[in-house]
Design goal:
Belongs to the CFA/CMAS family. The protein folds into two domains: 111 residues, no CATH class; 291 residues, Vaccinia Virus protein VP39 (Rossmann fold, 3-Layer(aba) Sandwich), CATH 3.40.50. Helices cover 43% and strands 15% of the residues. The strands form two sheets. Strands 7-6-5-8-9-11-10 form a seven-stranded mixed sheet. A four-stranded mixed sheet has the order 2-1-3-4. It is elongated, with a radius of gyration of 24 Å.
Length: 433
């Protein structure tokens, strides 16, 4: 194969009707494309066969996870340049794989370069085909295990000492650990936690929120997770902090909690796993577990509304490699379902830019500790996390997705909320809520 890079560049530009925004370096050592641009390294011809057999995002993701392709240079810049070709194209402008002659010509040209071998097997990190109803207890346990049970040591390298896997709350300067502490304290103040209050932390992760609420606000906390690895480390951290009399960690589905009422509920970065078919049930269950006048803090990633919501499709890479069965909903839809369950929404705060900053710190941690991270999990899994966190940071920065804290109240029988007249007093200092 002589000068594969030039052949691939010409083929791609003819199909796209525009210049490629990155250079290509092929397996034969040849290069083509704009000088000084990030380099898409195609290490093996197998990468092209992945695209032939699974055109689009999933084929590219398989090639990335398997190490068949890589980026030389700034990954953020490379993904930003490629976004218009891969993710930001209007569906009406996309080529149809059967009807569009450009797509057929591209496939024929790729076949001549790639060779007529059978499709390569997907990388082992990919979730196998699933069947049956979405978001049953069993299927949710499997999905959570895929994402979270990849090694506590791996997550400690990426997340840092705070072990908080959700958007931090940044002030001017400061470390990731300080920003995560400020986020946890913001949640506690929005919930107006007081000494002896019962807090249910839904999706408690490695116990950071439960520990903070107990140590700094005197709450009695029940934390629940479906991840056994998370629960084991969370219990150890609680014991090391001397808080076993105030914090209980359970491996339990939110649908099976029956020991309410609670004074407050925190759900931080968990509701994305619930799914549209179960979201009203989720809202109903949390409402039933709160005492009248109790508060819910729902911290959740949101997508932008689609012109045709029925046409919405889950991201193929995220579903196959990151969050199986995970779904993002528009903010308005989430608010509507919470209100239909009986909640009164009292405050919504967007933390979109904060999540972009958080993700960039996580990516930096992963890159800094790359060899250790690979040993803690696998090369493919580490590559999955690097790609998804980098792409997610760009999505938050470009306002393609957001993240919001919704503070809601279960009203008392006479309609009372117990909220202060100055709705955002919690932003001033601890104890003002």
């Amino acid at each position: 194969m002589a000068d594969a890079a030039s052949r691939l560049t010409a083929l791609a530009e003819e199909s796209l009707s525009q210049p490629l925004p990155v250079r290509i370096r092929a397996w034969d050592g040849s290069e083509s494309g704009p000088p000084g641009a990030p380099v898409l390294v195609i290490r093996r011809r197998r990468a092209l066969r992945r695209l032939l057999w699974k055109p689009g995002e999933l084929g590219l993701a398989r090639a990335w996870v398997a190490g068949d392709i890589d980026i030389e240079g700034d990954l953020y810049e490379a993904l930003g340049r490629l976004a218009g070709l891969l993710w930001d194209r209007d569906p009406e402008d996309s080529v149809h794989p059967v009807r569009d002659p450009r797509a057929r010509a591209f496939a024929r040209g790729l076949l001549r370069i790639a060779g007529p071998w059978p499709p390569p097997a997907p990388p082992g990190e990919e979730v196998r085909r699933r069947s049956g109803p979405l978001h049953t207890r069993r299927r949710d346990r499997q999905a959570v295990s895929h994402h979270y049970d990849v090694g506590n040591d791996f997550y400690a390298l990426v997340l840092g000492p705070s072990l908080v896997y959700s958007c931090a709350y940044w002030r001017d300067g400061g470390t990731l650990e300080e920003a995560q502490r400020d986020k946890l304290d913001l949640v506690c103040r929005k919930l107006a936690l007081r000494e002896g209050d019962r807090l249910l932390d839904v999706g408690c992760g490695w116990g950071s929120m439960a520990i903070h609420a107990a140590r700094h606000h005197g709450a009695r906390v029940t934390g629940i997770t479906l991840s056994r690895e998370q629960a084991a480390l969370a219990r150890k951290r609680v014991a090391d902090e001397g808080l076993t009399d105030r914090v209980e960690i359970r491996v339990q589905d939110y649908r099976d909690v029956d020991d309410g009422p609670y004074d407050a509920i925190s759900s931080i970065g968990m509701a994305e796993h619930v799914g549209s078919v179960r979201y009203r049930e989720y809202a109903d269950d949390l409402y039933a577990l709160l005492k009248p006048g109790g508060r819910l803090l729902n911290h959740q990633i949101a997508r932008r509304p689609e012109k045709d919501e029925d046409a919405y499709r889950i991201d193929a890479f995220i579903d196959a490699y990151v969050f199986p069965d995970g779904e993002l909903a528009p903010l308005g839809r989430t608010l509507t379902l919470l209100e239909e369950a009986g909640f009164e929404a009292r405050d919504v705060e967007s933390l979109r830019e904060h999540y972009a900053l958080t993700l960039r710190r996580w990516v930096a941690n992963l890159e800094q500790h790359w060899e250790r991270a690979v040993r803690a999990t696998s090369p493919g899994r580490a590559r999955v996390w690097r790609l998804y966190m980098t792409a997610s940071a760009l999505s938050f920065e470009h306002n393609q997705i957001g993240v919001n804290q919704i503070l809601a109240v279960r009203p008392t029988d006479d309609g009372g909320s117990g909220m202060p007249l100055r709705a955002r007093r919690w932003t001033a200092s601890a104890g003002d809520a």
